[in-house]
Write a structure and sequence with these properties.
Elements (H helix, E strand, L loop, with lengths): L2 H21 L3 E4 L9 H10 L5 E4 L4 E3 L4 E12 L2 E3 L4 H8 L5 E14 L7 E3 L3 H6 L12 E13 L2 E3 L6 E11 L2 E3 L14 E3 L2 E6 L2 E4 L4 E3 L4 E12 L4 E6 L7 E14 L3 E8 L4 E16 L1 E9 L16 E14 L26 E6 L6 E13 L7 E5 L16 E2 L4
Amino acid sequence: MSISSLVRLLISLFVAFVVLAQSDKPHCVVESSNGKSDDSPAIKAAFTKCASNGVIEFKAGVDYNVWTPITHKLNNVDIRVNGNLHLPNSIIKVLQITNGRKVTWFQFSGANVHWIGSSNEKYGWINSYGQQWYDANPPGKTGLEGRPHLFRWAVNQGTVRHFKSRKPMGWNVGISGDNNLITDAIIDAVSSTSAFPFNTDAFGVGARNVTIKNSYILNGDDALAIQNGAHDILFENNTIGYQTHGMSVGSLGGDPNSPADVSNIMFKNITVKGGLYAARFKSWKGGKGLVQNVTWSNIRLENVTFPIFVTQTYQNQALGQQSRPSGQAVRMKDFTWSNFSGTINTQNPGDGSCVKPCWYNDGLPTLRHTEAVILGCDSATSCQNFVLKNINLEPAGGNAHTTQICMNAKSDLNPRLGIGCSNGTFRAI
């Protein structure tokens, strides 16, 4: 037998072995009540039976009522979501479950776990019926209390494919653990009324080695929020928009006794369609720690209010700026913004999250809403090695000059800043 024939034989045997090994996995198909009752007991039974080396399948085109939160530790498991999952369509029922506690509806931990949603646009959805929550929010408030988080992925060596969330009540996906790939996700938090979808963050990441790509996010808060402890994160080839608060690092430094530790964050090849922010950093006044090696590259904007925004005096508008330590800030080092193009929302700036006094205009007395760049460094030493290059942004309508606001990004610590740190007309140097 020739060497090439032997190689082909060995490959065939290996493939056959893999197929056989996969076929030996326990396979749990979740049965549905067809809308008559809570399917959570059947779901929990399937997760218990196939928690190790198993396959858990929600049948194609079938609806499941998940009226009770699901929490499970898994090992080497595929979760195949070919049907649609429905949370309670009742504010009262949800509040009875949360009962003043922080609740996440789906929580998965373990290793080598894979969420495999349907590639069919009709199926694989988690329907949270959030519109009623948006509409019930009282004027001047920032979202109803008691809303659960939707999904916590505390997995090592995991994948999430075709995750779909429609009308979330609030926060969507929290990711912790190590080595996770999220791809082809859809987050749809578009309100069908004038009510704003507060706190509908798409992804919050406080993990290591995470890639989020090829996804579509329409929401009313951060598309990605980088949290403390995040390292080696890639967010690429995604489209975000509606009333999004963009690609955010932070907020960080909220607890002065817990220093920020974040590094190696890359946002690449992103389209931002509308929204409040595109590239954003936010840390609390009086925070501690270091954030380093963060890059936004090849960012296309369509009518965004704040394209590039840095604040080291962040506040939560629901709480107000409480007493904070002075004379310190989360340090920023090695930040790059490159190849930005598109338009600034000059004609109708802002979004529906503004509660008087408007949080996103706070501390910016010279704001014109023609700014391509706003750099608000807390002190002359808190920002180091900032680089701005190929920033080609213009106010929508073409009747105004592009401007900038820059505070404390001193040239001795930022020799390649790319602009003069002053307020006024934007000029690359």
